[in-house]
Amino acid sequence: MSVEKTFYIETYGCQMNFSDSEIVASVLHKSGYEQSADPSKASLVLVNTCSIRDKAEQRIWKRLRELQALRRRNQVLQIGVIGCMAERLKDELLESGFHVDLVVGPDAYRILPALLQEVDAGQKAANIELSAEETYDDIQPVRYNSNGVSAFISIMRGCENFCSYCVVPFTRGKERSRDPETIVNEAKRLFEMGYREVTLLGQNVNSYNWVHEKKSILFHDLLEKVAWVNPLLRVRFTTSHPKDLSDELIKTMARNSNICRAVHLAVQSGSNRILGLMNRKYTREWYLDRVAAIREAMPDCTLSTDIIAGFCSETEEDHLFTLDLMNLAAFDSAFMFRYSERSGTVAAKKYSDDVPGEVKARRLSEIIALQQKLSGKSNRSDIGKVLEVLVEGKSKRSPDFLMGRTSGNKVVVFPDNGHQAGTYVNVKITGSTPATLKGVESNQ
Ligand code: 5AD
Ligand code: SF4
Question: pTM above the 0.85 mark?
């Protein structure tokens, strides 16, 4: 009797993981699996995991514990762990005492069907080999996560920056760029399907470099090619490393109005001493110069960032430098974290994680409070403006309202007057909170 093959996949962590899950779905569809939105109806449950901070891994261990209950009810259920934690902790996962059949790292998704055959034959299967070439460029992702309006396109994989706190270079391997033709074709295909926004994804998109027949295509070249697919297609990108943010990129953005007016530029710290220890390869002066260059070329461009509180040896003075830089850069939004030591990284090997937990927590809450103020101010400054909003669908909170985003990536909620997802509407902003803009359709 043939058993129906159904998979359920859940994803943790960054957008790259969500994008990878769409590749995994595609590989599994091709080998005869159906996707289910309900783990209790699946023959295979996959957990796409994140290792960036200890908290992320703890969440996954907790989830694996919960999945054991499902497995007790369904003795033929197969459980797989994929992604960064699979790469980092293969042996711990297989020997954890939890039922785990399959462990697959981020560069081995192509061979999932063969690994699953081993599992079908009653063995545990694992592959965490990292590749210098794999970009999955020929695999069409199954956009099961999508709202039909915006989609991610992965343009490169891996990272070689080796920021001293970061585990990503170890879990995702060498940096490699994807063939630009396949990227542009994917953007075209998405536009034809009705999508109106693509986000080009990579750990450090600014170091995109496709070399072919001795010619090099850099990130700003690629970005413009994608922007030229159609003026009605919005193009975003994430994430950028400040050290590689070139004037060419800023010029390319400024001359293409469908490249969104939003830059995510992770600063991590405002102290030059800490930036040095973090191996970030720029200073606060360099960072603020890049911010000034962006704002001069595109005064309406929003700026978001990542900040780590309480990195090794961080003093009160270093922390004040971070708060000061936040004020100077006037970030529109930020992701803020407390430092979490990751084994294997330079910071774990060379520096002591010596900022006490309560000091990290207090500094983080000061950073969050300041950002809340800055976000509130940024949103208030939009009141009275008419902004172009790409409608994504109904507002989750109130069904009489639509929700969409501005080019600067701010969420706007306004009364539903019948616009479909994927249309552009001019909205006059009438109110704001630190997280959302409110408005009404404008006739002007
Ligand atoms: N501890 C805390 N935050 C981290 N990040 C990366 N590694 C760590 C760590 N060990 C943050 C950085 C990065 C974001 C994706 O996660 O701010 O930009
Ligand atoms: Fe990690 Fe730095 Fe690479 Fe970002 S650039 S993934 S923080 S090593």
Answer: yes
